[in-house]
């Protein structure tokens, strides 16, 4: 076994040497001069910039934008923004575009908010406070002259087709958010705080929440931060949790509670105090016992990087226990951190847990963990022994391997309201509407003052009232007060607006369908079916008489009205058939271009496709114009040949100019009838 370990060490040494040689052969990438400069250079340039800023030397500061290392560029930009010299704009604009963090592969994005903010401040130097505030919000929200054009959009190419979409990475530049919020703090008002509190930029959110709570008593500020974290989530929840670090030790209990609830940011903020015994104990507790793997993942790093000697032993003990976490990434990270700490100067902290470390290095179920810990053991000078009496440690099964994100107030509310919304929508359509009233009242209890629920409640009550006052005949066992109420309400309220036209039309179609109330196979002589047909006819007539501007729905209503009347009459005569066919023929001869959409709720012109047709026109042509052809021809072939020839002749006359295909179909039908006549008389 020792021979194998020695061979592995040799192999690793060769591999690492090759890796270093290969790495050195590759030119190092440049990340805005953040590498490749000395501490002395940085400090010397910082002193030079301070002198230039003191003298108000814009020209010298502009030179530093090109000559200085990256931290110097940032400092120079900050001073140039204060000076407001417009000659700095070209150089600042280039830096903003190159290093502004608009492309997230550029590492400098985390320090680069100085460039766009400097551009913004120079552009609005002589503007009013109101204009300055608006310009700052434009920058924060990805608008305005301070945003480089190339950053406003993201282009992607797939199958030769390039699509352009808004670049939401703008909102991820936290440094911009922090700097803009700090600038807005100079003009702070309740209105500015309120606007900042809606920001999706996490850097701005921290400042926004702190502006809101900083004047509160500590206890109230902590409580309100916890409420924001729980109810708002997202950037503002992040901001609320990070604001708690301003309270120091006083916020430790609150952060512990938030971590228990699944807020991973609470672990990061606790990490700022990891050298504090109380905070460190809580971090260890969450690493070993929190059922949320995301929380444990954040905790493992915080537990690893403590400097205080009195905490180091507990850190190592906790990491050894974390080697048996059910999530592989946590086990690997714990092992890696143990290896990183395994040096002679820390040996005193490892000695109390020597046996546990050796057992893990020899018998851990995960081979990668054994390899990492073998290096740690050898660094510390311990000897791995093959003790067969020691049982193989087991991976824990009492914790979850998947994390979860706590729901905010809106998500929790949606879980309660969404099923009720779905149910009440059906009740308004079918009924009973009286039950819809009850559900809307419950929804308003869950979400008080919500206008959609208030409007829905009003409509449900109107339907119930209309159903009770209706003088229309309804068959006795119809339980659908929703249908009855809607029908009665629509006929009682002649509304010239287009808002509910679609509902009227759908209800008429529903009443004349074969599957109303889940009945199937109902014949036209059924009294219930006749009642439905009569009501459908009244609604179609209502649409025709009261919505003349909507050609599409009026024409289709005329077609369905003719069909419904035809179905109502069991003893159909020539006149019924003729009216039925001619009503459909009126649709066939209507030019598609004459159909317009007047139901658009925003009043916009209908969108047209590449061929210049609107969706309404395409639907009309597909479902009403061409979909009726075969049915018209079939219905024209009545038992009375004279009647059929008359109807087919009408089709040929009316369609000759507009529909040659329909004329050809009619000609073929006439030929078939004439052949039928000849055969009859020849016999």
Describe this structure in words.
With 683 residues, this protein is mostly helical. Helix content is 64%, strand content 2%. The protein is built from 33 helices and two strands. It has a two-stranded antiparallel ribbon with strand order 1-2. The N and C termini lie far apart (109 Å). The model is unreliable at 1-34, 515-523 and 600-604 (pLDDT under 50).
How is this structure best summarized?
The protein has 683 residues and is mainly α. The protein contains 33 helices and 2 strands.
Outline the low-pLDDT stretches. 1-34, 515-523, 600-604
Structural category: mainly alpha
Distance between the termini: 109 Å
Strand order of the largest sheet: 1-2
The percent of residues in helical segments reads 55-70%
Got a strand count?
2
Rg, alpha carbons: 39 Å
Overall pLDDT confidence: 82
**Number of helical segments with 4 or more residues:** 33
Sheet with the most strands, sense and barrel status: 2 strands, antiparallel
The global form is: elongated
Strand content: under 5%
